Amino acid sequence: MITVCRIEELPPGEAVRVTDGLPAPVAVFNAGGALYAIDDTCTHQDASLADGWLEGCFVECPLHAAAFDLRTGLPTCLPAKAPVKTHQVTVEDGFVRLHVTVGEPA
Amino acid sequence: MTTAPTTALTPVPRSITVVGASLAGLSTVRALRAEGYDGALTLVGAEHHLPYDRPPLSKDFLKGTADADSLALGTAEEYDGLGVEWLLGETATRLDPAARTVTLGGGRELRTDAVVVATGATPRRLPGTEGLAGIHTLRTLDDAVALRADLTAGSPRLVVIGAGFIGAEVAATAHALGLRVTVVEAVEVPLERALGREMGLLCAGLHADHGVELLCGTGVAGFTADGGRVTGVQLADGRLLPADVVLVGVGVRPNTDWLAGSGVAVDDGVVCDAGCATKIPNVLAVGDVARVPHPFTGRHARIEHWTNAMEQAATAARTLLSGASTAPRAVPPYFWSHQYGAMIQLAGHVAPGARPRVVEGDLDTRSFVAAYELDGHTTAYLSINQPKLFNRLRRGLTPLLATP
To answer: Domain containing B138: what range?
Structure first.
């Protein structure tokens, strides 16, 4: 488990990229009050999804039109073909905690 | 209620041939199926490869951090579901709209109700480079494989001719590979047409930031060679640049020769209306080869951007299946470039006379967003390393001119 930040530091509509202690960067999103975490790197090309456009439960890659469902990690349209891994996020004592999923995306 | 006239509608074709199997061609096939077209579909591709993504060819693929498999635009599973006849390694040589045929290089004739021209473009070459080893252009996967082989054999000196996006990206990649690179540009300000003078100069500064020499305002007079292999680039001002490898990135020529005699109007690309239709019924064009009036910029010009290929594919599919050619929504054109770790993104139209104003960050840190303004209207945004703000701002862009 990794402590990401205080919950106040991740207001709705924002995202934070987590790299420390991880094999691959993870992006943690606050989508209208619900927290989600997915692998940060777009499966189409090397771009950080934490920099992407957040709309509802979807994040659009900052480079292309590829969008991912934060709940499932599945791409909604091409050019991304492969899902990104999803991870569990909790809030404990006012801190956002990341529980990284090990293994391949579903 | 009155009934709309139907005389202008073209009947929906029962067989469609898409000539060109890159992003534009594949996207057209996908869009046709997504819109419910269930007739015959043929995809003709001059290259032997299945459709692949070209942008990484000058960046991650050339650097060696992405392999050819990772460039695939689709999967075998998807292609199975598309129900397309693939004719790869085949070049279309003739179009006869009256007979409804496309002729292939081997003489085979395809009968088809409709044709979508997605044949792309070919890099321009310079005189005196024919048959000279070590001189490259970069467009295809095979080009990139050959260039990478030359760049990774020993520690060659690279000269890049042309400081446009391809040239700059290759220079940056070669620099990252540890090579000595010199960039030569004929005009005084690189990228001036795409970004305007101030931002063209700024992006040109990225080379100097990383110790890569950029020589502007000088043409290339010729090449020196030894045993059929390039040894140097002779500049018009008399200087000689030693070179083991040369990359020529001086623009492209649309692949329209095969349309000669077809009646399809060609003038720096296939001349289309805003719905990607030519004046010949059921002959359309998409991607780099297509000259389509753009609803955002108002310009009737070819656009060689990645997203444009996908957008025009969707437009062409709608035109074919609705039987009426209509302009799409006015979405600002968008492109990006990665150079020296800087992510450059531009959306909108750098209209003549529009001046950039930094709205976030600052130029010196190479992390900023600039708005191009003309008469108080923002026509475009340019961003370096500020993707998040850029993607928010670009959504607010509106066309300068109301489209008719």
So the answer is: 125-250
> CA of A63 to nearest chain B CA: how many angstroms apart?
7
Tokens 């862009």 locate to B397
For residues B104 and B60, membership in a common domain is answered with: yes
Out of B295, B322, B349, a domain closes at B322
Q: What is the pLDDT of residues B56-70, one digit of tens each?
A: 999 999 999 999 999
Residue B3: inside a domain: no
Number of domains in chain B: 3
- Give the pLDDT of residue A45: 72
Asked if residue B234 lies in contact with residue B215, where contact means CB atoms within 8 angstroms, the answer is no
Residue A55 in any domain: the answer is: yes
Structure confidence at residue B327 (pLDDT): 94
DSSP string, B251-280: -EEE--GGGTTS---BSSSEE--TTSB-SS
Please list every residue in chain A whose beta carbon sits closer than 8 Å to the beta carbon of residue B387.
Answer: 47-48, 51-52, 62-63
In the numeric block, which tokens belong to residue B179? 């090579």
In this prediction the pTM is 0.92
* Per-residue pLDDT band at B9 (split at 50, 70, 90): confident
**B310 in the same domain as B257:** yes
Whether B356 is in a domain gets the answer yes
Of the residues B272, B287, B322, the one at which a domain ends? B322
Q: Which of B305, B185, B334, B301 lies closest to B247, judged by CA? A: B185
Q: How many domains does chain A have?
A: 1
| CATH number, domain containing residue B258 | 3.50.50.60
Q: What residues of A are in contact with residue B63 (Cβ under 8 Å)?
A: none
How near does any CA of chain A get to the CA of B58, in Å?
13
CA B389 to CA B369: how far, in whole Å?
A: 8
| pLDDT 10s digits, B328-360 | 999 999 999 999 999 999 999 999 999 999 999
Q: Which residues of B touch A67 (CB under 8 A)?
A: none
Structural domain range at position A45 = 2-99
* Pairwise CA distance, residues B281 & B337, whole Å: 37
Predicted local confidence at residue A46, as pLDDT? 74
Averaged pLDDT for residues B195-218: 96
Q: Does B401 have pLDDT greater than 90?
A: no
Asked if B391 is an interface residue toward chain A (Cβ–Cβ < 8 A), one would say yes
**pLDDT at residue B23, as a whole number:** 96
Task: Please classify residue B17 by burial: count the beta carbons closer than 10 Å to its beta carbon, then call 0-12 exposed, 13-18 middle and 19+ buried.
Answer: buried
Pair B276, B287 in one domain: yes
Q: Are residues B103 and B162 in the same domain?
A: no
Q: Which of residues 59 through 78 in chain A touch B, CB cutoff 8 A?
A: 60, 62-65, 78
